[in-house]
Amino acid sequence: MDERLIKNQADLINKGMNELREYDPELAKILDDEVERQHRTLSLVASCCAVKPQTLAASASALVNVTAEGAPRKRYHAGCQNVDLVEALAIDRACKLFGAKYANVQPHSASNANYQVLSALLKPGDTLLGMDLDHGGHLSHGSSVTLSGNYYKAIGYKTTPEGVIDYDEVRKLAHEYKPRMIICGASAYSRIIDFDKFREIADEVGAILMADISHISGLVATKRHPSPIDAAHVTTMCTHKQLAGPRGGLILSGRDADEKVPGMDKTFRQALQHCVFPWMQGAPAVNIIAAKAAAFGYASTPQFDDYIGKIRDIADSLASAFKEKGYEVIGGFTRNHTIMLRLNGDITGAIAESALEKCSIIVNKNRVPGETRPSFVTSGLRIGTGSLAQRELDESGCYRIVDLVSRILDRVKPINNKEYELDSNSIQTFRSEVEEICREYPIKSYME
Ligand code: DSN
Fold first, then answer.
1. What are phi and psi of 70, to 5 degrees?
2. What pLDDT band is residue 345 in, cutting at 50, 70 and 90?
3. Distance (Å, rounded) from C-alpha 163 to C-alpha 19?
């Protein structure tokens, strides 16, 4: 082979970065600025963490050049020998990590995975029982602004005032509406989900149970949260929230994989295999599948177990600190990585999110049970600990951050639902404090 040919992944990525800087400095600068932004801001976003550099590298592999419709060893294209090995590795690792019998690693996101499963197992007009968006559910679980709430007759179950899923209501609604599918799993929920109870209810009414564990995938993988793999007929998740993986989706099935789908002449394995390709998706992003394989590999290590342990410890410390500062933690405590705060008075979720961002603290405004404000305003904040755990924050760091949040929000003077005053001197002072915390607790995996 010609000596000048680049023959390995690392050299290709280096050449690419050099070329980007030389030929497209505008884009290169934005990308560099983002790395820097992540170092000097504190992310308290429940759905984020920093992708492991090894996983990032896998996502930038030359596999991206291969078109590979189909499944390993059953492709519609030639030239797939390495892609087949990578996809088979990702499937094997996903099954081992979660104790599943079937895995589909091709969905581009968890929402896509959810729609793929819905469209495979339900007919338009069938009834779907999912968690109400205001009570912590996800858009794709039946919200009226999405396909899931329009192609299907979506019914929402709620949480109690303590922020706990009202299983009696779930049972009542299931018996009343006889849904074809019940979806459990949440985007803004701080308690343990009783997957076995959901299955019991689903079986009582002959419904299919789908669990979306995007938010708690790491807790499930490390056995800090009960697993839905055998309780639900189908489990979905994204790979970037707690797995520190690439943006992508995953579909799994456990003990029901080779059972017949009720009312269909197919097993779950067959229906799930068909629902991604060719039903809804074309060629997979095989470079992202490589990154998923890397993420599943990392998620099987003791280091990952430590990381998820920190996610839990930090969540407990933050919840206590917010309560000490007089904030309402919905439900009073957390059992996972999420803390839901109901804000008092005129400080809306939108104002808090914006004011904190000005001071380099990133949070999400969020709807809360009993919400009276629109989605772009809201009365709550959703706090999560995936990114803070990568900074290996200790208890004193947690208290410093909560103290900062509290002092920032105390200085904010709301004008209306979205506008507010916060003087520029205070912003500068708060930013410096955040940067000091960021320096003291750097993102460990992003250090030399
Ligand atoms: N599902 C949304 C969230 O929880 O933030 C986006 O991933």
1. 110, -155
2. confident
3. 51
What's the half-sphere exposure (Cβ side, CA atoms, 13 Å) at 130? 29
CA distance 421 to 153: 44
pLDDT of the residue at 406: 98
> Is 133 assigned to a binding site?
yes
User: Alpha helix locations (H) across 150-279?
Assistant: 167-177, 195-205, 217-221, 268-276
What is the SS3 assignment for 411?
helix
Q: Over the range 436-447, which residues count as b (16 or more CB within 10 Å of their CB) and which as e?
A: ebbeebebebee
Angle between helices 424-440 and 25-40 (to 10 degrees): 80
Residue pLDDT, tens place only, 388-442? 999 999 999 999 999 999 999 999 999 999 999 999 999 999 999 999 999 999 9
- For 49, 216, 313, 398, the CA distances from 310, given in Å and listed in that order, are 13, 14, 5, 12
How many whole angstroms from 289 Cα to the centroid of ligand 1?
20
Q: How far is the CA of 364 from the centre of ligand 1 (A)?
A: 10
The model's confidence at residue 304, banded by pLDDT at 50, 70 and 90, is very high
Residue 47 alpha carbon to ligand 1 centre in Å: 5
Name the residue with the closest Cα to ligand 1, atom 1: 187
Given a cut of 90, whether residue 161 has pLDDT beyond it is no
**What pLDDT score was predicted for residue 314?**
98
Compute the distance between CA of residue 352 and CA of residue 408 in angstroms, rounded to an integer: 9
Q: Which residues contact 318 (CB under 8 A, 6 or more apart)?
A: 339, 383, 385, 388, 398, 401, 402
Give me 222's structure tokens: 């490390």
pLDDT of residue 447: 95
The span from the CA of 237 to the CA of 272, in Å, is 14
| 141 assigned to a ligand binding site | no
Looking at the predicted structure, is the pLDDT value of residue 162 above 90? no
CA-nearest residue for atom 3, ligand 1, is 47
Task: Answer yes or no: pTM beyond 0.90.
Answer: yes
Instruction: Extract the tokens encoding 135.
Output: 């009570």
3-state secondary structure of 118: helix
Closest atom of ligand 1 to CA, residue 111: 1
Query: Using one digit for the tens of pLDDT, what is the confidence trace for 20-58?
Result: 999 999 999 999 999 999 999 999 999 999 999 999 999
Q: Any residues with Cβ below 6 Å from ligand 1, and which? A: 47, 138, 187
Residues 6+ apart with CB under 8 A from 320: none
CA distance 406 to 400: 10
| φ/ψ bin of 335: left (φ > 0), alpha (ψ from -120 to 50), beta (otherwise) | alpha
SS3 at position 120: helix
